[in-house]
Amino acid sequence: MLVKESGGDGAGRRKPRDASGIVKIHEDGNLVVLNGKNNLVIWSSKVSSDSSTNSSAQLEDTGNLVLRDLNSGETMWDSFTHPADAAVPTMKIASNPYTGLGLEPMTWRWENPKCPCSHQLGYLTRTPLFDFEKLAAATNNFHFANMLGKGGFGPVYKGQLENGQEIAVKRFSKASTQGLEEFMNEVVVISKLQHRNLVRLLGCCVEGEEQMLIYEFMPNKSLDAFIFDPLQRKVLDWKKRFNIIEGIARGILYLHRDSRLRIIHRDLKASNILLDDEMNPKILDFGLARIFKGGEDFEVITRRVVGTYGYMPPEYAMEGLFSEKSDVYSFGVLLLEIVSGRRNTSFHNNEESLSLVGFAWKLWKEGNILSLIDPRDM
């Protein structure tokens, strides 16, 4: 089998070298790639050092290249559990049989939109994996009665594992406005974050066309179910609202300053804030988040404006310019909603104020800002 020796991009797709190579079974039983010029080993599976090992390599229908010990029949190495920087459809993310932890892509994007077999992977990290069958059993086969809500990504179900632990399962819909990139982005971001005001990711499930995220269960659902409901918002006195505002601020500060990674959420809104049994807020949905490294101050321009209109700052909505200040603006809109009990989008028929932000600014200029506060808080 002749192959092209890879360049610095790992798979050699973008800058392949001219030298031809040969894939073969080495005398020590390993699968190796030899330089076509001088037969030097430039890559090895490195799973055997015994010259008596009798092995064979087979490319399965799934696209998985498998190296087997012919004497025992055991799999010594396979490409799906040792991915470099490329993946193919139906590729199962690998798991460690001893720890139960799985390998998942750190970054994932289309290498070629016309070729669904070329997703590009960055480096790998670990996150627990769940079997589809166990999640189906936990949610009573994703029964409608267990549905907690539904967003652009698809439905979220309440479930209970065999050990009694309650979970929330976000099942991505085939018609979802959020794709594979957002799914993998959320897995990567949340798996690396730990804070009392961020929702904890318990694991994920990727089997066939199924993509699911499993979170800790929040019994009080999302913030919007309280502040915009005439009956439920009576539960939120000023002390509770203040604690919720403070908790969200702590979560944002962690994302921007205190975590190992600098993260811009880009979709802060009431429906992305969950409440636990003590009404503590936890930030959810990192599918649109961006990770950055480096200096204190930075701004990025993107051609793809994502998020929720009404929570976006003008420079982002109109010019695609975003930074940490974008989250701060969204937090400001959210704060006004919590204090007033009114949706930012509830002013579309108001000729004087096009938004809650405009209404608050109008009251401020009139010296009447206290009238913005929900009367139930007074």
From TrEMBL:
Q: How does it sit in the membrane?
A: Single-pass type I membrane protein
Keyword Plastid part of the UniProt annotation: no
- Which domain of life does the UniProt lineage start with? Eukaryota
Which reaction does this chain catalyze? Answer: L-threonyl-[protein] + ATP = O-phospho-L-threonyl-[protein] + ADP + H(+); L-seryl-[protein] + ATP = O-phospho-L-seryl-[protein] + ADP + H(+)
Q: Which residues cross the membrane?
A: none
Where does the record place the Bulb-type lectin domain? 1-80
PROSITE patterns listed in its UniProt record = BULB_LECTIN, PROTEIN_KINASE_DOM, PROTEIN_KINASE_ST
Where in or outside the cell?
Cell membrane
- The residue stretches assigned to a coiled coil in this entry are none
Which InterPro entries does the UniProt record give? Bulb-type_lectin_dom (IPR001480), Bulb-type_lectin_dom_sf (IPR036426), Kinase-like_dom_sf (IPR011009), Prot_kinase_dom (IPR000719), Ser-Thr/Tyr_kinase_cat_dom (IPR001245), Ser/Thr_kinase_AS (IPR008271)
Query: What enzyme class is recorded for this protein?
Result: transferase
What UniProt keywords are attached to this protein's entry?
ATP-binding, Cell membrane, Disulfide bond, Glycoprotein, Kinase, Membrane, Nucleotide-binding, Serine/threonine-protein kinase, Signal, Transferase
Q: Which GO terms describe its cellular component?
A: plasma membrane
**Annotated spans, Disordered:** 1-21
Tell me one GO molecular function of this protein.
Answer: ATP binding
Q: Where is the Protein kinase domain?
A: 142-378
Task: Name the principal localization, coarsely classed.
Answer: membrane
Family annotation (PANTHER family): OS06G0693000 PROTEIN, RECEPTOR-LIKE SERINE/THREONINE-PROTEIN KINASE SD1-8
Q: What is the name of this protein? A: non-specific serine/threonine protein kinase
Upper classification of the organism: Eukaryota, Viridiplantae, Streptophyta, Embryophyta, Tracheophyta
